[in-house]
Automatic annotation (TrEMBL):
Catalyzes the transfer of the phosphoribosyl group of 5-phosphorylribose-1-pyrophosphate (PRPP) to anthranilate to yield N-(5'-phosphoribosyl)-anthranilate (PRA). Anthranilate 1 binds at residues 81, 112. SUPFAM superfamilies: Nucleoside phosphorylase/phosphoribosyltransferase catalytic domain (SSF52418), Nucleoside phosphorylase/phosphoribosyltransferase N-terminal domain (SSF47648). Its cofactor is Mg(2+). It is an enzyme of class 2 (transferase). It comes from the Bacteria. Anthranilate 2 binds at residue 167. This is Anthranilate phosphoribosyltransferase. Keywords: Amino-acid biosynthesis, Aromatic amino acid biosynthesis, Glycosyltransferase, Magnesium, Metal-binding, Transferase, Tryptophan biosynthesis. One of its GO terms (biological process) is L-tryptophan biosynthetic process. Residues 75-325 form the Glycosyl transferase family domain.
Amino acid sequence: MISNIIQKIMKHETLTEGEAFYFMEKLANGDVTDAQGSSVLTIMSFRGETIDEIVGFVKAIRKLSRATDSTQHGELMDTCGTGGDGASTFNISTAVSIILASLGIKVAKHGNKAVTSKSGSSDVLEALGIQAASNHFEANYQLNKHDIAFLHAPYFHPALKKVASLRGELPFRTIFNSIGPLLNPMAPAYQLIGASNEEVAHKLAKVIQKLGINRALIVTGKDGLDECSITGETRMFLVENNTIKSFNFTPEEAGLNRGDLQDLTVSNKQESAELIRSILQGKGNESARNIVILNAAAALFASKRVSSIRDGVEIIKQCLQSKSAYYHLEEMTKEEANAHVN
């Protein structure tokens, strides 16, 4: 079966959902060699993964994942990007998740260490002094205590350990960038997902249609960011009730000034953490502050807390001006420090 799948891929044919599920399962179980795995991932990446292939991979990894019961917390929110945009921006979605939690919104933040960027969400958490949850007990504790759980993907997805080395050897985005936001073990009802380009964003919208999530907003900046862009137009796909609505959105529509991409870039996790701390205190450069405001407002819209992104902007601005998100972060980091001392 594996050899047949590889032959199909080599002929530039696409896989059915069942074939993709089977291949991913075998890859996770070590029944596929590194050479075979690298070849399939490379070819799929350059020709573009199909909706059925993405769905098959997601279902296989979900089947092999460690289950986490999140029913006690009600409807959860996640903010996560596919990565692979190569822009080296600071961890915008992590900053957004802390802001949401400070507003009392339950967030299950799913992430990993950097593969194609300067700083993954797990990296910047480390620099901020926050420990990611390594099991569902810790995740539930974080949610109960701080309204946010930081879920380090490898802890919850042992199936991905086999592919971690493969991903590290491939210097470009793969199907695992696309499916990362769809693997949250706490199954959030609402998601803000950043995609590296419009093609990936549209595919993810169709995948979510098949998988079923209450409401998701998939965004991709026309400048190539896997975020709502502050430098120009953002293409958005809203998935709800098995329908997809697509539209463009500009910073001006949110009442924000356009920014400069250079003001968003960092060289490492420490720089990212410093910029996040500054923004949460209502400081930081205008471009960085505004892109966090825009994405946090989009998250409020995605989770049905506001009827428009523009309405969300005013709430986020007030949150930053009051420094409540910064105090929320400080409370989390102090608890971590005390835990290490004790």
